[in-house]
Amino acid sequence: MSIYDHTIGGLDGAPLDLGAYRGTAMLVVNVASKCGLTPQYTGLEQLQERFADRGFTVLGVPCNQFGEQEPGNPEEIQTFCATTYGISFPMTEKVEVNGPGRHPLFADLAAVPDADGEAGDVQWNFEKFLVSPAGEVCRRFRPGIEPESPEVVEAIEAALPG
Prior knowledge:
CATH topology: Glutaredoxin
Shape: globular
CATH class: Alpha Beta
Distance between the termini: 22 Å
CATH architecture: 3-Layer(aba) Sandwich
Order of helices and strands: EEEHEHHEEH
Radius of gyration: 14 Å
Number of helices: 4
Number of domains: 1
Structural class: alpha+beta
Helix content: 25-40%
Largest sheet: 4 strands, mixed
C-alpha cells in the first residue's frame, strides 16, 4: 500500500489529500512544540526550502503521545510553527503514532526498519520517514538524527523524482 492511499486531516481541519503529493519525495515527521528536539523544525524548514522546487516536501504530523509535548489546539500549533520557525510545509491534524489509536498512516510507517534493522513503534518526537515519489517508505531516521545530517540529505537527494 502506498502512503498516498491514506487519508488524514490537515491542521486547519480540512481533509489533507496525501494523493496530491504523488510523484514527490516526502519526509513525514511526527512533531511537537514543547520537546527538547523542537529546534529540529529549523532543519526541517531548511530542507523544505532547499528541495521544494525539486519535487520534495516535509509533512509535519503533530503528536502528543510523548511526554504530552504537543498539548496545543490546531490554532496554537499553527501559530507556534509560523511565528517561531516560519514553517511553510504542510501540517496534519494531531494524531497518535503508537498504540491502539495509532493512525493507519503510522501503522505503515512503523513497519519500516531503521538503519539498524529495527521496525516497530515510533521512539519519540521527530522520528522521520522518507517516502519515495511512488509512495513507498524508503528510509527511517530516529529522532536524534538531525534533519540536515548528511545521511538524511543524501537519502532525500536519492529519492527526488527525475
